[in-house]
Amino acid sequence: MSKPVVLITGASSGFGMGLADELLKRGYCVYAAARRLEPMEKLREKGAKLLQMDICSDESVQTNIKRLLDESGRIDVVVNNAGYGAYGPVENMSSEDIAYQFNVNVFGVARINSAVLPTMRQQRSGRIIVIASLSSHISTPGTGWYGATKHAIKAMCESLRMEVSSLGVDVVQVEPGPVQTGFEEVAFAKMDKMAVSDDYVPIMKSFRAYMEQSYAKAPGMESTVRAMVRATTVRNPKWVYRTTMESRVIPWLRILLGSRVYAYILMKVFSRASAA
């Protein structure tokens, strides 16, 4: 039996690299994709096939998927792992930063899925995995536009899952909360360069204090990578894998409390964080 063929986007670091490494150990045929090839050289040495892919480019996605299909003749699993986030007030986020988050987190996933689904439908088999987030369910001050992209991804997955359910194609969401991957460093760096209106400075100070505390005590990547491996390899995957305590508890808490009470408690938590 031929090795299952898996495409992983955003494989140059974090969850994507961790998943690629684990699947290679299990004998999978792994195509590791990212804009830069150099960080993935260790994966190449272990047997991965590298794709220099920009998921914000239709041409780049189509060219690389064609290469994968020409070489392998099939595609069994796609892991939409590439992602980008920028923190800051909804009003002050530039249209360029808003558009780029949607281009990576939403339209990038759409490009990949549209490129592989014709083959999966023809095969009557395949699996699409999307790395969503706790932010698919909640938003906080400072995460409005990033959360908007993840809410969009959740809605897309739910619709797509029903559309392809009779065609042999699975659609799986993986939803971590804060995890120590370095993601927050990029998001905070964008906020540091942002011109924040004076009225928002206090709440952004509280937001940053809370998030820094959350990331300081956040788990490593292990539980999320394990869930990604299960989502890829098991015969009948769950629809949703929530991989950290926060991602398992907070969505239900948000529903139980209701919007007004949840917002009140969240703002109190932020205030305590900034005073610590």
Q: What keyword list fits this structure?
A:
single chain; 276 residues; alpha/beta; Rossmann fold; seven-stranded parallel β-sheet; 54% helix; globular
Q: What would you note in describing this structure?
A:
The chain is of the alpha/beta class and 276 residues long. It has one domain: Rossmann fold (3-Layer(aba) Sandwich). The chain is built from ten helices and seven strands. The protein has helices at residues 14-25, 41-45, 58-72, 95-123, 144-164, 183-192, 201-216, 222-233, 245-257, 259-275, and strands spanning 5-9, 29-34, 49-52, 77-80, 126-131, 169-175, 240-242. Strands 3-2-1-4-5-6-7 form a seven-stranded parallel sheet, sandwiched between helices. Helix 5 links the parallel strand 5 and strand 6. Helix 3 (58-72) runs parallel beside helix 4, helix 7 (201-216) crosses helix 10 (259-275) and helix 9 crosses helix 10. The longest helix is centred in the middle third of the chain and has 29 residues, at 95-123. The termini are far apart. The mean pLDDT is 95.
Describe the structure concisely.
The chain has 276 residues and is of the alpha/beta class.
- In total, the number of domains comes to 1
Large-scale geometry: globular
Question: Which sheet architecture does the biggest sheet show?
Answer: 7 strands, parallel
**Uncertain runs:** none
Q: Could you name the CATH class?
A: Alpha Beta
> Helix proportion of residues, in percent?
40-55%
Number of helices: 10
Radius of gyration: 19 Å
The CATH homologous superfamily corresponds to NAD(P)-binding Rossmann-like Domain
Shape-level CATH architecture: 3-Layer(aba) Sandwich
Strand content: 5-15%
> Helix and strand string, N-terminal first?
EHEHEHEHEHEHHHEHH
Which structural class do the helices and strands define?
Answer: alpha/beta
Strand order of the largest sheet: 3-2-1-4-5-6-7
Average of the residue pLDDT scores:
95
